[in-house]
Request: fold
Amino acid sequence: MTAMIDAERLRKKYLRDGMLPTIFCNGCGHGAAFDYAFRAFEELGLDMDKVALASGIGCSSRIPGYINADGLHTAHGRALAFATGIKAANPDLTIVVFTGDGDCTGIGGNHFIHAARRNIDMTVILLNNFIYGMTGGQLAPTAPIGSISTTSPYGNIEQAFNICELAKALGAAYVARWPIFHPYQPIKSIKEGIQNKGFSLIELLSPCPTAYGRRNKLGEIDSLWKWYEDNTILIEDYEKAMDYGTEEEKEAVRGKFQVGVFQNVQKPGFFEEYDKLVQRIIAKEDERKGGAE
Reply:
């Protein structure tokens, strides 16, 4: 009963009633992302008047429209570029981006690369469902080999995009991936991402029963969600199996999605470095003027 009361309180506090119901299909994992984000906001005690949300196009990108906070619903793939602009205009804002795998790493791949490389202070909650769910069921760059979609009717032959490994290699301050059916780890990672003053990526593996599940014959909702459970493994367990396991143990984990925290480092963000640069230029200019006098 207490949990139900708490959930209702959070719903009233953070959701726009006039926007409900949501567009999400039964069994879609995106609805859980609401709950995780709200609980992270609440536990951090965020002032929502100092939070700005951004999104592009897609099922997950509709989320900011349901949240009672200021935000931008931008063009397809451009959420991180707009979010960078918001942060540049008002560095005191907490920036949270909701995006999908196609929106962020397909159409918006270049913006993703450079936002992570620059370590722009924003928290990106990326809902990965392996498909362009809203715009026609096309193949997303994260889809596993063999995936069926409207643009790969005979099965995907392309290597899947490993979002977290790329973000880590680019030097993002915080990088994590979790299956969406485990609540506590995503909530903790969203909190850690917001608290980390740099680029934070939280990838949530979110089942799509309609555009992906049906085409790939993954069964009813329960079976679909179990597929994710069967095909994910903690980073530590994966590395242990690959380093010390038998060939059978290695084969059993090979190809599974590694989940956990990939990177958590403290490093200056882009705008911190930019401010230092401005101060150095001002100091040199003052010194030059002083010498001229």
